[in-house]
Amino acid sequence: MSTEPGQVGAAQVTPDAVESDDAVAGVFGANDPLRLLAEDAEDLAIISAALQDAILRPADIVWERAARRLTIELSRFCWECGGTRVRAAMQFGDVLGVKSRSLPRLPDAPLELLAIDFEGGEAPGGRVTLMFAGGGDLRLEVECLDAVVVDLSDRWPARIAPTHLDGDDHTDLDTAVLKDRKTAEQNA
Length: 188
Prior knowledge:
There is one protein chain. This protein is of the alpha+beta class. Helix content is 20%, strand content 37%. The chain has helices at 15-19, 23-27, 41-51, 171-187, and strands spanning 9-10, 35-38, 54-56, 61-64, 69-77, 84-93, 95-101, 111-120, 126-132, 137-142, 147-151, 156-157. The longest helix has 17 residues, at 171-187. The chain is globular and about 40 Å long. It starts with 8 loop residues before the first strand and ends with a helix.
């Protein structure tokens, strides 16, 4: 993998490194814009760690059926540099179908991404599952795993660090998401 600034490379880190707090920082320097490519489940685990606690809205998810592409714009919490957020985009290619379960239908409802998983099917295809706080998920049927994540903006201080709330009371999360989103739009 190339870690030259401005280049995209496949994430090549051992599964044990994904468990550590430094998984993403070990791939790239803490101040470099993140640019990752996933072509297998191990690569996707690195992207999942980098995007844990990213916030977005349903309106930020764009499914282009004819192009077989799903693109998501999000506000990524930078665990590798602590206390900041950055606008980022994630794109999946070779997408055959998209299904959602228990996601809000309002276009501006806040969503918090918890993890991304790949379940292999008929090689090299399978199912990518994006899991969100509150129990909702987005499932992508893919011909092959082809995912890219790129930071799009400069970082800004996050108003609060992400927490994983018990139960369904996301009032504090909703307020924080809206404040961070407003800050992101002002910095764009």
